[in-house]
Amino acid sequence: MIRYNIPDLIQCLNTEVEDALIDRMPSLTVVGSQWGDEGKGKIVDYLAEDAQFVVRFQGGNNAGHSVKIGEELFKLHHLPSGILRRGKFSVIGNGVVIDPGVLIQELDGLESRGVSTKNLRISERAHVIMPYHKLLDGTEERLKRGSRVGTTGRGIGPAYSDKASRIGVRMCDLVEEEVLSEKLAFLIPHKQRLLEFYDDSTRLDENKILREYSEYGKRLRAHVTDTGALIGSALAKNKNVLFEGAQGTMLDIDHGTYPYVTSSLTVAANAASGSGVPPSAIGDVYGVMKAYTTRVGEGPFPTELCDDIGSKIAEKGGEFGTTTGRSRRCGWLDLVVTKYSHSLNGFTGIAMTKIDVLGGFDKIKICTHYRLDGKKVTRFPTDLRVLQRCEPVYKTLRGWEEIEGKRLENILAKGFRALPGTMKEYIRFVEKEMSVPVSVLGLGRRRNELLDFRKKKWKAK
Ligand code: IMP
């Protein structure tokens, strides 16, 4: 039995972090510390309470956030989670790729449920996901055979490829029919040839695409603006700005498990570039960390549990993708992953989610390092062939009982001290290993089912 006696650890870490941050700009960046699906939606929704601006800076509708408010479940793909909070500005930054048809559907869906979307602002620099991107996403995946990434099929990779190849369509083009028409006159024959090369017989109808997409442009025009300037002026006026990351650090195109990654930079540094503001605007960085690990799609996953425990976690945690409905692979928390993630993001706080899902297990494991050829590995390997040969080494901690009903209510009312002792040990162990305090703890699906240990909070404005 392991006991971690780390008195006042949270207190001490919080104080150090707070002293260092006193003069920072009033912004907060929230990113996933694992392979996505860490529960960022719920955390951002909560933290957005005192923000005036919530900004998405990368990814597209490959993301999926579920937020439960009362008995109502909201599933968002394109829109920042802050859209569910009245009176906030929700911003889709220049680093995002947008499927305009999907975005409009999402807007209509929210409006029909009484959620106002008039405060949405979309960057004129954001790139548009076109129909051929979606076709090519599927075709290119199929051709990869043994090395499929398992993409969400939403056209994300091809849209970012066109951006990098400088043949993308931006929102400022979408809202100008003439410009769009000129671009399509080159792009459609080009993409048609590419589809033919890939033996895809789909015919692209240029006129139809122009009609459909210029309608989208008209519909979205009122929301499209220079969002970098907007956020910059909000920061200058000391408004509270929350940058909301999508996916997770291990899916980052540069730093993740390449090629089993998404096509954008998911790390906190990109909150600046993907929103059009300076790096000094990023502020505090919270890493959202599920109390265990999941990943969807292909790619290495050292602590994956292909047994009954993995299935039990998946079932209890409802681990099915919001975007594709695919079941997520589950495993124990991997500190090699989260420490690597911290080295890239510089977390000032951890938002630990879904700790309730681990309730009812006798023993809970945490991977502290890997072992390769008899040697200890603490840094996440770059080469996936090396990673595949690594064996996770675990620390076994005692589990805790299920947290529900009256017990949960009591914890929510009384806070940290009311948590089961073994859960406290789990949290403290993670904090000590990461040298980062757990600032927010998610204990259930609902909006209010979390504990907030932050000492430094935004002032509501
Ligand atoms: P893409 O982003 O659709 O190109 O997919 C690339 C990889 O990232 C695949 O393994 C996807 O399953 C994964 N992925 C993309 N978006 C998310 C997400 O929001 N959560 C978890 N995994 C994601």
Report on the structure:
The chain has 461 residues and is α/β, with parallel strands linked by helices. The protein has three domains: 180 residues, Adenylosuccinate Synthetase, subunit A, domain 1 (Adenylosuccinate Synthetase, Chain A, domain 1, 3-Layer(aba) Sandwich), CATH 3.40.440.10; 90 residues, Adenylosuccinate Synthetase, subunit A, domain 2; 163 residues, Adenylosuccinate Synthetase, Chain A, domain 3 (Alpha-Beta Complex). Helices cover 35% and strands 19% of the residues. The protein contains 15 helices and 20 strands. Strand 3 and strand 4 form a beta hairpin. Helix 4 packs parallel to helix 7 and helix 7 crosses helix 8. The chain starts with 8 loop residues before the first helix and ends in a 9-residue tail after the last strand. It binds inosinic acid.
Spell out the key features of this protein.
single chain, 461 residues, alpha/beta, Adenylosuccinate Synthetase, Chain A, domain 1, Adenylosuccinate Synthetase, subunit A, domain 2, Adenylosuccinate Synthetase, Chain A, domain 3, ten-stranded mixed β-sheet, 20 strands, disordered N terminus, binds inosinic acid
